[in-house]
UniProtKB/TrEMBL annotation, chains A, B:
Monomer. Keywords: Calcium, Signal. Residues 1-19 form the signal peptide. The keyword Signal applies. Residues 22-289 form the Glycosyl-hydrolase 97 N-terminal domain. Residues 598-698 form the Glycosyl-hydrolase 97 C-terminal oligomerisation domain. This is Alpha-glucosidase. InterPro entries: Aldolase_TIM (IPR013785), GH (IPR017853), GH-type_carb-bd (IPR014718), GH97_C (IPR029483), GH97_catalytic (IPR019563), GH97_N (IPR029486), Glycosyl_hydrolase_97 (IPR052720). Its cofactor is Ca(2+). Pfam families: GH97_C (PF14509), GH97_N (PF14508), Glyco_hydro_97 (PF10566).
Length: 702, 702
C-alpha cells in the first residue's frame, strides 16, 4: 500500500471511518461494509446470524478514466433512518410502508486526485438495496463502463430457479437446480428463440431466486434500471460467487455515464419464509415516487383480444400470403386476402360485443396494420408505420362501435425490434391512438434489434423503453411492453407502465408447452420486478382443437387458469381464450368476470417456489376478496384460511376447484363450482389436481 | 462450366445475347458489356479509341443468399435512347440536357433457380453511369450485402487527386500523386480528425479525379446514393484496378436490401478537356426528377454569420466554462458567463444590420443554444435539444428584429453525431424554426456517430441524412448539411438540399491552413456530386489578427476569395469574415454583394485540376455575368474572353485583381479594382498572384 494511502487508512481508523455496520429495523438482517486489502470496498449480509452474502467486493471497471475498484478510503459515513408510507396508483395493496436504515459511505481514491464516489446502502426488514453514486465534481464527469464488478458471494451451493444469462431474451423455461449444476444444464436450457445472445456457460438472469439448504430464501435483482445497462450475473461455480455482468453495446462498451449519475439499486431480498419474498415491496420502495401530476387516466385494464387464434395458428396476423411487402408501395387493396386474417372489422366487433356483455374494459387487436407478411426474421428497418390498417380493418367504424358499447380499443405496436423506425413514427402512432379510441398499447420487440449490434437489454434500449413510456404519458396512454427489459419497479415512477411480458408467457403453451411448475416459479422470479401480462384464462388447453397441426397443450387445468388471475399480479389482465370457448364454460368464466385487477390488500397465504402458491387479495374499494391457489405437477390439498376478513361478518364464497379426476394433461377441463357461507374463522380444504388450482370469490352475503 | 450453363451460353450466342456494345451519342465513348469465364459480368470503356476502363468485373457478394458474382447468362438486352431537357430549381444553368444511349441487360443465374438481376448502363457524351437492379420476383426478396465487387480497371498509373478512403471524414487535404505513390503517401495523408476510420493502405474516396499520361481526364463517383452504403474505392496498386469498398455497419454488414431495389449509379466521367469535366451534368442527369409539388419556397441564400470568430478562437460557442452540463438540469441563468460568447442578442443584431445594409438574405448564428460546454469528444447522447437558447440569446426579439429588416435567421443544428437524439427532437426543432423566422438550417455531425459502431457514411446514416432533408421539406426548410456523406446529385430530387460541406472547407484555413491549390482541385472532386458550402470571403487572412494564439493563415489572396464565389458553385454562399473587416474593404466587398448564387448559364473558360480554373456565369433572370479565376501557388496570367455575351451589346466590367506585388503568404490583401467597357469581342489579360485570383462583374452599361 502506498504511503499516502497508509496515512489515510490510519486516520480513518482513528476517526472510526473503517468498517461500518447496519441493522434492519427488526434487527434480523445485519450488514457490514468495510475496505479490504488495498482499499477494495466490500460488504456482507447475514440474516438471523446466518451468512447470506459473505465478504463480497464492490466496484466498477472503466474504459477511459481510472477504474473505481480499489485504493479507496472512507472519507465519510452517514447513517439515517426512514419510515414513510405511500400509495401506489395501482398495486397489490393500497398503502406500502417504506422503512429502512441507510448507510451512505463516501469513498475517496487518493491515487486519483480529488475524485470520490458514494455507495448508498438501505437495509429493510425484507432485504438490502445498494447503489453506486457519482456526484457532480470537478474531476469526474464523463466515463465509460467496461464492466461492473459487484459480487454476491453466496454462502453455499443453493437451490436456484434460474434462466440462462442472455442479452436478448428471457423466454427460456426456468431451470431448477443447485448452482453447481448450472454448467451441466446450460446447453439444454438454451432453447431456440427469435433473438438470443448468451454470454457465459454459467451466466444467469435476474431476478434470481434461491433457497439455501437451511431453508433461507434469497432473491437477487435490481431496482430502478434507468439510463444504465441491464445486469445479469456470472456464477463462479467453484466458490459460488456471483458477479454482475452488464449488457454490452454494439462496440462492447457497457455504459456511458456523466456525473452526477448513479447505478440502479442492486437488491437482495431475504427471509426464512417464502411468503415474505412474494410480499416484499423492497424493489418498489427503492424506486422514485411518481412525478406525474395527473394520474387519473391510469386505470386497471381487463381485456380480451384477437390474438390467441393467431398464436395457435388458427388465423394469421398477415392479410395476404405475399413473401415481401413494401409499406406505401404495396397496394394491399389489389392483393388476394388469404382468408385467415383475424383482424377484420366484423370479427373484431364480435370481440367488442363479448367484452361489453362481460364487463371487459378493452379489446386488443393484433394484425390490424399493414406489414405482417414479412415482419419477422428479415432485419427489416421500415417494417411497420403503426397507422395504416389493412383493407378489412375499419379503424373509424370500430372506434364508433366500441365507443357505443363503452369499450376501449387496445392498440398493438409490434416493432419487430426496429427501434429507430418505431421512434420515428411514435408521435403519429400515439396521436392515431388517441384519435381512434385507443388508450392502451401492447408493444413488442420480437427479433434482433435494429440498430444492428445493439441488444434488447443494453443501455441503448433501456433508454428507448423509457422514452416510449414517458412519451405515452404525454398522450395519456398506458403501456404493456413485451420483449422489453424485465421490469425493476419503474411502475412506481412511471405508473402508466402497467405491465410487461419479458418472460416466458402463455403463448409458449402453444409453442410446445410450459412446465407445470412454471407459474409457481414466476412470482418468485420475473414478477419480483413488476407485473406480468401473462395472458391466462385458457380454457381449451389442447391447441389442436383450434389448429389440428399444433399438438401443444397448456400444462395446467382450467381452474389453475382461473387462479392465475390472483397469483400472477398485474393491473392489466387478459382473458386470452376465444369467446366461443368461454361460451361453453360460462359458469367457470364467471370468476374471470368477477376478479379484480387492482387491490387494497394482499395476503400471501402459503408459498413454495416451484411447488405451490396461495394468495388472497381484497379488491380495491370493494368488500370483495379473491383467492387463488396453484400447484405444480403434484396434486395437493390446500387449506385456505380467511382470517383477513372483517370479524363477525358473513360472506358468500364461490369455490372453483379441480374435479376429482382432473389433471393438467389428461383431464384439464374437469371442475366443480360450489358456494359456501364463510366468515373469518372458516377454513376450507381444496384438492388441487396435478397442474391444478383453486379459485375463490368472496362477496358479502346480500 | 456446368452443363446447364454451357447450354445457356450456346443459346445466348446463337440468339446474339453475348457481348453488347453501346456508343455515346457523339460516338466518342464506346462501351462493351460481356460475360467472361464462368459467367462473370464485365464491361469496358474507351474514349476516342483510347482505353479508359479495361475489362472490369461487376457483381455483388452477399452474406445470406447466393452471391451475384458469376454463373450469369444474358437473358435479355435492350437498347434505348433518351433525349430530354429539364430545368433545375436552382443550378449552374437554367436548362440541362439529358441525352444518353442506354443498355439494359437482364442476367439470369441458372444455378440459382428463377433468379435474375439487371444492370442498366447509360452512356452520355460526357461519360458512363451504371447501376445494379434487383427486380421484384419470387426468388429474391431480402438480402444482405457483404461487399460490392465493382471494378474499374484503369489503363495506367494515372495522376490522381485523392483523399484517403475513410468511413467517417472527408476533411483531409487532397494528395496529388500517381496512383503508384498512394501507398507510400497514405500515412502522412491521414491527419487527425474528430472522427475517422481508414480501411486500407490504398483506400480512396470518391469523387476521384485522375489524369492519364496522355491527357485524358477521368472522374469516378456515384449518383443517387439512397438507402445504400457509401462507396469508397480500394486500389490494387500492382495492376491499377480499383474496386468498390462499401461502408460497414456496426456488425460489419454493408447493406440491407429488399427487392425491388437498386444500387446507386456508378459514374465515370471522361474527356480530353478538363473544362468538360467541370461542365458535366451526368450525375444530376442520373438522379430522379423532383417529386415536390411546390418548390417556390426554395431560393438561393447569401448569408453572413456568427461563426468565423469562433472558428478562429476569438469567441466561443459556449456560454460559460463548465466542463460538464446536463440539459434541463443545469440552470444556465445561475452560471457565470465566460464573457466570450458571441451568440448574444446585441451582437447578432449587428450582423442583422450588416446583412440588411448589404443585401444578404440571412444570418447564421452558431452557439445560440444550451449544450456547447461539453458537446464534443464525450460521446454524449442527449447533447442538444435544438430549441433552448442560452440566457443571452433572445429568440423572439431576434425574430422580430430580423423580420423588421427583411432578413431571415439561419438555424444551426450541430448534432455532435448523436443521431437518435437529433431525430427525437427533429419535429420540435423544425417547428421551432418556422415559429421563429428561420427557413434554412446548417446541420453538423462532428464526432463519432451515436449509435456507436455506425459510421458517417454507412447505410444507417445515409438513410438519416435523407430523412432530415425530406422532413425539412414538410416544414419548407432548406438544408445545408456539414460532415454528412458527400453529395451524389440528390439535390435534383430533393432541391431543398441546398448544399453540403462534406469536405475540407474554409475552417481548415484556421486549423493550420489549406494548400494553395486546394480550391483548384475541389471542383474536380468534391463538387462533382453537388454544391459545397465552402464559406469563402475571408479578407483578413492572418488568423492572429483575431486570436493572437492562432498563427494559421488563409492560403489565398483576398481577390482569390472573391473569385471563389464563382468557381465554387453553391446556391448557398456565405460571406464568412467579420463585418468589421469587410468595413475596411468595402470596395472589394462590392463583388460579394453583387455576385449571384443562381445561374442561367455557365461557361468553363479554362481549367486544369490542381492548377487553375476560370469560369463565367450569367446570373439567373439578369443581364449580368460574373467571372472568377483562381490559381494555385504559381502566379499566372489569365486571358478572360467574353464570347458568351450578346453580340453588339456593351457592358461595364469591374475587374478585381491581385496587386502587382500580391501573394497569398506575403501580401494577400493587395488588390486593384478597375472598370472597363467591354463587349463580346473583348479579351482581358489579368495577372494572378501566387495563390491569387481575379473576379469580374459584368453589367449592362446604363
Amino acid at each position: 500500500m502506498n504511503k499516502l494511502l497508509t496515512i489515510f487508512m490510519l486516520l480513518s481508523t482513528v476517526l472510526g471511518l473503517q468498517a461500518q455496520e447496519l441493522s434492519s429495523p427488526d434487527k434480523n438482517l445485519k450488514f457490514k461494509f468495510s475496505l479490504q486489502d488495498n482499499g477494495v470496498p466490500t460488504y456482507e449480509l447475514s440474516y438471523k446470524n446466518k451468512p447470506i452474502i459473505k465478504s463480497s467486493k464492490l466496484g466498477i471497471e472503466t474504459k477511459d478514466v481510472p477504474s473505481f475498484l480499489n485504493g479507496f478510503v472512507i472519507s465519510n459515513a452517514v447513517q439515517t433512518s426512514f419510515d414513510e408510507s405511500w400509495n401506489p396508483v395501482l398495486g397489490e395493496q393500497k398503502t406500502i410502508r417504506n422503512h429502512y436504515n441507510e448507510l451512505l459511505v463516501t469513498l475517496a481514491q487518493p491515487s486519483v486526485k480529488d475524485r470520490y464516489i458514494r455507495i448508498r446502502f438501505r437495509l429493510f426488514d425484507d432485504g438490502l438495496g445498494f447503489r453506486y453514486e457519482f456526484p457532480e465534481q470537478k474531476n469526474l464527469s464523463y466515463f465509460i463502463i467496461k464492466e461492473e464488478k459487484t459480487q454476491f458471494a453466496l454462502a453455499g451451493d443453493h437451490k436456484a430457479f434460474w434462466l440462462p444469462g442472455d442479452f436478448d431474451t428471457q423466454e427460456y423455461s426456468t431451470v431448477t437446480s443447485n448452482l453447481s449444476e448450472v454448467r451441466g444444464k446450460m446447453k439444454a436450457a438454451v432453447t431456440p428463440n427469435a433473438s438470443q445472445t448468451t454470454f457465459s456457460p454459467t451466466g444467469l438472469q435476474t431476478p434470481l431466486m434461491m433457497k439455501s439448504k437451511d431453508g433461507l430464501y434469497i432473491n437477487i435483482h435490481e431496482a430502478a434500471l434507468v439510463d444504465y445497462s441491464c445486469m445479469s450475473l456470472n456464477l463462479n461455480d467453484s466458490n459460488f460467487v456471483l458477479e454482475s455482468f452488464l449488457t454490452p453495446d454494439a462496440i462492447g462498451d457497457k455504459g456511458y455515464l456523466q456525473a452526477p449519475a448513479q447505478s440502479p439499486w442492486r437488491t437482495i431480498i431475504v427471509s426464512d419464509k417464502a411468503t415474505d419474498i412474494l410480499a416484499s415491496k423492497l424493489i418498489l420502495n427503492l424506486n422514485e415516487p411518481t412525478k406525474y401530476a395527473d394520474v387519473s387516466w391510469i386505470k386497471p385494464v381487463k381485456y380480451v383480444g384477437v390474438w390467441w387464434e393467431m398464436i395457435t395458428g388458427k388465423s394469421t396476423w398477415a392479410y395476404n400470403d405475399l413473401e415481401s411487402v413494401q409499406l406505401g408501395v404495396t397496394d394491399y387493396s389489389k392483393t388476394k386476402p388469404n382468408g385467415k386474417h383475424a383482424a377484420n372489422t366484423q370479427h373484431v366487433k364480435e370481440y367488442i360485443d363479448f367484452a361489453a356483455a362481460n364487463g371487459f374494459d378493452a379489446v386488443l387487436v393484433e394484425g390490424w396494420n399493414e406489414g405482417w407478411e414479412d415482419w419477422f426474421g428479415k432485419t427489416k428497418d421500415y417494417v411497420f408505420d403503426f397507422i395504416t390498417p389493412y383493407p378489412d380493418f375499419d379503424v373509424q367504424e370500430l372506434h364508433r362501435y366500441a365507443a357505443s358499447k363503452n369499450v376501449k380499443m387496445m392498440m398493438h405496436h409490434e416493432t419487430s425490434g426496429s427501434v429507430r423506425n418505431y421512434e420515428r413514427h411514435m408521435d403519429d402512432a400515439y396521436k392515431f391512438m388517441i384519435d381512434n379510441g385507443y388508450n392502451s398499447v401492447k408493444s413488442g420487440y420480437v427479433g434482433n434489434i435494429i440498430p444492428r449490434g445493439e441488444h434488447h437489454y443494453g443501455q441503448w434500449l433501456v433508454n428507448h423503453y423509457l422514452y416510449a413510456i414517458t412519451k405515452a404519458a404525454d398522450y395519456k396512454i398506458m403501456v404493456n411492453a413485451h420483449e422489453a427489459v424485465r421490469p425493476t419497479g419503474l411502475n412506481r415512477t412511471y405508473p402508466n407502465l402497467l405491465a410487461n411480458e419479458s418472460a416466458r408467457g402463455t403463448e409458449y403453451e402453444s409453442f410446445g408447452g410450459n412446465n407445470p411448475d412454471h407459474t409457481t416459479i414466476l412470482p418468485f422470479t420475473r414478477l419480483m420486478g413488476g407485473p406480468m401480462d401473462y395472458t391466462p384464462g385458457i380454457f381449451q388447453t389442447k391447441i389442436s382443437a383450434y389448429n389440428p397441426e399444433n399438438t401443444s397443450f397448456v400444462h395446467s387445468t382450467l381452474v389453475h387458469q382461473l387462479a392465475l388471475y390472483v397469483t400472477m399480479y398485474s393491473p392489466l389482465q387478459m382473458a386470452a381464450d376465444l369467446p366461443e370457448t368461454y361460451a361453453k364454460f360460462m359458469d367457470a368464466f364467471q370468476f374471470i368476470k368477477d376478479v379484480a385487477a387492482d387491490w387494497d390488500e394482499t395476503v400471501i397465504l402459503e408459498a413454495e417456489p416451484g411447488d405451490y402458491i396461495s394468495i388472497a387479495r381484497k379488491a380495491k374499494n370493494k368488500d370483495e376478496w379473491y383467492i387463488g391457489s396453484i400447484t405444480d405437477e403434484n396434486p395437493r390439498t390446500a387449506t385456505i384460511t380467511f382470517e383477513y376478513l372483517p370479524k363477525g361478518k358473513n360472506y358468500e364464497a364461490v369455490i372453483y376447484a379441480d374435479g376429482k379426476t382432473a389433471s393438467y394433461d389428461k383431464n384439464p377441463q374437469s371442475y366443480t363450482i360450489r358456494k359456501m357461507k364463510i366468515n373469518s374463522k372458516t377454513k376450507v380444504k381444496v384438492n388441487l389436481a396435478s397442474g391444478g388450482g383453486a379459485a375463490i370469490s368472496v362477496k358479502p352475503i346480500k
